Amino acid sequence: MNKSTIWSVLGGILAIIIAWWLVNVLFSVLAFVFKLLVVAVVAVIVFFVIRSLFSSRRD
Length: 59
Hints:
The protein is mainly alpha-helical. The chain has one helix spanning 3-58. The mean pLDDT is 93.
């Protein structure tokens, strides 16, 4: 094996490690954003349900 081959192998391994880390970060961010969206939708639904319950009792 010459030096060029060794550096190519090491570069490939490093590229895989960096890509693995970036994909983990990306999926974590996407999961967090998805959870925020779900929480926002559920909060809006709960808000309107509570509002309708209190407004019907006042009438």
